[in-house]
Amino acid sequence: FLSLNGHHLEQRPFPDVVQLALSQSARSEVYRQALMQAQKRASRGQLYLDWVNANNQDSLSRLVMHPHQGSVYYACFSKDGSRIASCGANKALRVFKTTSGEKLLELQAHDEDVLCCAFSPDDRYIATCSSDRKVK
């Protein structure tokens, strides 16, 4: 866990280690301990995120990217799984290759934070919405 996530531990503000640990294999002790901590937090009304569709996360490759300056509000995969679209506080939409992290596209999409993005069913288009109350 530390060898995979050590680079996160020097960030400021300090990352949520429990949330990082929930990305580990569900069979690992790190995940088990993190889930117990997260459930304690939930009993006090706090939120935690966990995968509900990761049947075998050990077989997934791991790609770490920092696609935006500031917060990333949303990211999604294309239907064919070859691209990741992300959007955030920098008012931009960015698209990357899932295998390498290579940036394929960057657009200043809105005048304010881009809150969400989604690929069309045929993967030809991407829709965005923003706090500027526009959908593009």
From TrEMBL:
Source organism, top-level taxon: Eukaryota
| Listed Pfam families | APAF1_C (PF17908), WD40 (PF00400)
Gene3D superfamilies reported for this sequence? 1.25.40.370, YVTN repeat-like/Quinoprotein amine dehydrogenase
Question: Which keywords appear in this protein's UniProt record, sorted alphabetically?
Answer: Repeat, WD repeat
* WD repeat spans: 107-136
Start and end residues of each APAF-1 helical domain: 1-41
SUPFAM superfamilies in alphabetical order: WD40 repeat-like
Q: What is this protein called in UniProt?
A: APAF-1 helical domain-containing protein
The opening ranks of the lineage are: Eukaryota, Metazoa, Chordata, Craniata, Vertebrata
